[in-house]
# Entry
Amino acid sequence: MNATNRPPRGPRPIRVGQQAHPRLRVDGIDLVTRPMTLDDAQGVREMHERCSPESLRSRYFGPVPRLSDAVMRLFTDPERGTTLVTQVSGEGGIVAMTNLMDLAPGEAEVAMLVEDRWQGRGLGRVLMGCALALAPSRRVRVITASVYAANTRMLSILEGAGAEKPSMTGLILDVRLPLASSDVSAGATGGPCR
# Structure
C-alpha cells in the first residue's frame, strides 16, 4: 500500500507459490508452467535450437534474434511483461515459452513458441489460458497478437479464446482479444492456469 492506502498502479507481480505452477498432463507426460527466471536462459536457448525453422519463423517473423543475455533480461523483467516456461516435470527440459509483454497501459502482446514435438497436442490452448489468467494481474484490458495468416493453429487458439476476427487480410494479421472488465478486475476462471 502507498501513502494514501490505495494499491499501487501498474502491473502487480504474479504469485510464485504452488498455485502459480500449474501442472498438466499431455499424452501421459506431466508438465509444469511457471514464470521464467534468468536461470532458465540456457534451457530456453536449447529449446529454440530444437525448434524447426518454420516454428521459429512463425514466432519471430524472420531470423531468430540472438538470444543474448539482454534478451533474457527482457523476458524476465516484470516491468516489461511476464514470460512463462513450460517444462517436463522432473526431467526439467523446457518445451514451450509464452510471453505476455506490455505494449501500452492496459494492452499487452501475447506470443508463444512450442517445441515441434509438443505441437498439435493442445498445449497451445492451455498456454493461452495461462496468458489470459495473467492479464488481470498486469491490468491488461486488451491482448494483441501478430500472426501469419497461414498459422492456422495460432489463429484457432486465439479465436477459441474469444479474439475478434481480423478484418484485414495479408501475410501477417493483427489480432485483438478484448478482455471483459470482470476478467480484468476479478481474474479469469477455469483451466489449469486460470
Observations:
- The chain is about 25% helix and 25% strand.
